[in-house]
Specification:
The protein has helices spanning about 1-30, 35-55, 65-75, 80-125, 125-155, 160-185, 190-215, 230-245, 255-275, 280-310, 315-350, 355-365, 370-395, 400-430, 435-465, 500-525, 530-550, 560-590, 600-620, 625-645. It is about 80% helix and about 0% strand. The longest helix is centred in the first third of the chain and has 46 residues, at about 80-125. It has 20 helices and no strands. The radius of gyration is 33 Å and the shape is flat. With about 650 residues, the chain is mainly α.
């Protein structure tokens, strides 16, 4: 009837409008990418034409026939509608494929930029040159992070998604490591352990960049196949499926095939029985169940072969019993290895939660006690072996491919970070008064502690999968808690910054951090570390470094505006107060310097006071709405950027 025709017309118009919007995006992409512009334009024209054809064929008003004839025309001209629909599907698919190619190309181009800048960073010999190139590197890494983050969200394959997340996590952590490791190398150019430490970071970043490209392009270097070792869980799952399949079909696989599958599973259980960290009780149970599994399979094969020759009711009942007993045995084996892996993990995580070895390395490093550092590096190596073994065993019982990949990533992280902590600690022990060597060791220790913390969450997820609690996806955000000075900000709601705003804040933070490094290296030159000027300078440097840390945004996918708010405004005010105190100290110093140097020193002090006042006014001013608040935070970071260089630009005070 008339309602049906109107409904068809609405659908046709809606399709045409949707295609129009889709094509507009496609055309915009085409204009930005000259190589594929022609192909994309043709596909867009085809899609637009198909959308318009569908709208015309379903437009009742355009028909000059009576209602009944209209009805007949639309429903009998199916050929036209089908042709237009096929053309639409074909052209839309082409647009999507071309858009995908463009995204991949953008990621590869971005990766190439990052690699080229990394090569420059590796070769620099002056701190000034390093600061300049690292600033560019920071911008390129922000761009790469956004492109790969969007790609990760678009991936449908959970396994690829997990691999992408692991690689991006490596790149995020390594960016900070690259900064401190390179600075340490520049500060101590003849130190072998500092060079080893830096080389390790660059190598790991290159591997992670390569893995991202493998995932994005769906390829492996030299045509390798991705052959991750089979876990016990996945082996048991497949084996049980085959065994239970015998109920439907007695002839779909051979007994040799089934025996081989069990042999592979039992070979993997040797990872548990050979491990020094598996308890005697777990080892005995696993060996008993392995022996029982072989016997159950022998019995199953015997009944199965008989049933193939003679399919009697009794034999089929015996086969059902054999299938049930075999599967039950495999379930018990699965439960046993799960218990062995998770109890070891729980014990190790509890034992290492105090980070005693890391604390001892930091203390003995600052003391320059090479002998004690050597002793604690041996203990850290033992701890690393324990944690690597824990990750290997957990992978066998993780239950899902993404969790398996997370276990492999954790194993790699401990394997790599352990030696990096050792080389950083050795460097500090050789240069105990070096602030940058101390900061470098802190960064690697933080990465170790962070991975241990992640293991507790991973263990919980593995247990959830095992116990069938796998519905809800947890979001782990280490959100800051408002302090007592922030009562007036409690009503603020989280607001996500857009990509451009994130990039601006991240860039400002990075520049601020590079400047604080300069301040630290200058204040280290003072013989009198208790001097008031040094104390205030170091205080401001420390606060500026804290500001840098929150602009990084941690593990969160976005820099949350309220996070910046809660910490920033009070930090800016304290920073300004500290700057004013420094200016007063500079005024006092001006009375003691040569007459011709005094005006220069006073000029720097006045500049400092002026900028600190600007900062205090900006920090006190209210900001309503996301846009205003973002602008305010950005402006204050800019002022901090102006303040910080005045601490060291005038060499008179040094």
């Amino acid at each position: 009837g008339n309602k049906t025709l109107q409904a068809i017309q609405r659908v046709g118009q809606a399709v045409n409008l949707a295609v129009g919007r889709f094509v507009t995006v496609g055309e915009a992409i085409a204009n930005e990418n000259h190589e594929l512009k022609e192909e994309m334009s043709v596909a867009c024209i085809e899609a637009r034409r198909a959308g318009e054809t569908i709208a015309q064929l379903t437009d009742v008003a355009s028909l000059d026939h009576p209602e009944s004839d209209s009805h007949i025309t639309i429903f009998t001209d199916k050929t036209g509608v089908v042709k237009a629909a096929r053309l639409l599907l074909s052209s839309v698919t082409k647009v999507l494929v071309l858009a995908d190619k463009i995204v991949i190309k953008q990621i590869i181009t971005s990766r190439n930029k990052v690699l080229a800048t990394m090569e420059q960073l590796e070769k620099v010999s002056s701190f000034q040159e390093f600061v300049q190139i690292f600033s560019q590197f920071g911008n390129e890494m922000v761009e790469f992070a956004h492109l790969t983050g969007d790609r990760q969200n678009d991936l449908k394959d959970e396994k690829k998604k997990a691999r992408m997340a692991a690689s991006r996590a490596v790149l995020e952590k390594c960016t900070m490591m690259l900064l401190t490791a390179s600075k340490t190398c520049l500060r101590h150019p003849d130190c072998e352990s500092a060079r080893i430490n830096k080389d390790g970071v660059f190598h790991r970043m290159r591997l992670a960049l390569e893995q991202v490209i493998e995932i994005v392009t769906d390829s492996r270097p030299n045509g390798e196949n991705e052959m991750a070792p089979i876990s016990i869980y996945s082996g048991i799952k497949e084996f049980k499926n085959k065994v239970e399949g015998l109920r439907e079909n007695l002839y779909f696989l051979s007994k040799e095939n089934l025996s081989t599958m069990l042999e592979v599973i039992l070979e993997h259980t040797e990872d548990f029985t050979d491990s020094a960290y598996t308890s005697h009780e777990h080892r005995e149970h696993i060996l008993e169940l392995s022996k029982q599994a072989k016997m159950e399979l022998e019995q199953l094969v015997s009944v199965w072969m008989q049933a193939q020759n003679q399919k009697t009711k009794d034999l089929m009942e015996d086969l059902e019993v054999a299938i049930l007993k075999t599967c039950q045995c495999m379930n018990e084996l699965k439960r046993e290895v799960h218990g062995a892996a998770t109890s070891l993990a729980a014990d190790l995580l509890k034992y290492h939660t105090d980070h005693m070895v890391l604390k001892a390395l930091k203390i003995t490093g600052v003391e320059g006690n090479l002998e004690a550092v050597a002793e604690y590096t041996c203990k850290l190596s033992e701890q690393k072996e324990q944690l690597v073994e824990m990750c290997r065993l957990l992978r066998h019982v993780s239950g899902t491919e993404p969790l398996e990949i997370t276990c492999i990533h954790a194993e790699d992280t401990f394997q790599v970070t352990g030696p990096q902590i050792i080389s950083a600690a050795e460097t500090l022990a050789l240069h105990p008064s070096s602030k940058i060597a101390k900061e470098n060791l802190e960064v690697f220790c933080e990465a170790w502690e962070s991975q241990l913390s992640d293991m507790s969450l991973l263990l919980r997820e593995i247990n959830d999968v095992f116990e069938g609690r796998r519905g809800e996806k947890r979001v782990y955000l280490s959100l800051p808690r408002p302090g007592k000075h922030n009562a007036n900000l409690k009503a603020l709601k989280p607001v996500k910054l857009d990509t451009e705003e994130q990039a601006k804040i991240a860039k400002l933070g990075l520049e601020l951090h590079l400047l604080t490094s300069d301040v630290d290296s200058e204040t280290e030159k003072w013989e009198d570390q208790e001097n008031e000027i040094v104390q205030h300078g170091q205080g401001m440097s420390s606060m500026a470094y804290s500001m840098y840390l929150f602009t990084r945004g941690g593990k969160k996918p976005y820099f949350l505006l309220w996070f910046i708010l809660l910490h920033a405004f009070s930090s800016f005010q304290i920073f300004a107060t500290e700057g004013t105190k420094l200016a007063s100290a500079l005024h006092a110093l001006s009375e003691q310097v040569h007459h011709d140097e005094k005006p220069l020193l006073l000029l720097e002090a006045e500049k400092l006071i002026s900028m600190c006042k600007q900062l205090q006014i900006a920090a006190k001013a209210s900001a309503q709405g996301k846009s205003a608040t973002f602008t305010k935070v950005r402006e204050e970071l800019y002022i901090c950027l102006k303040v910080t260089p005045t601490l060291f630009q005038n060499k008179v005070i040094y």
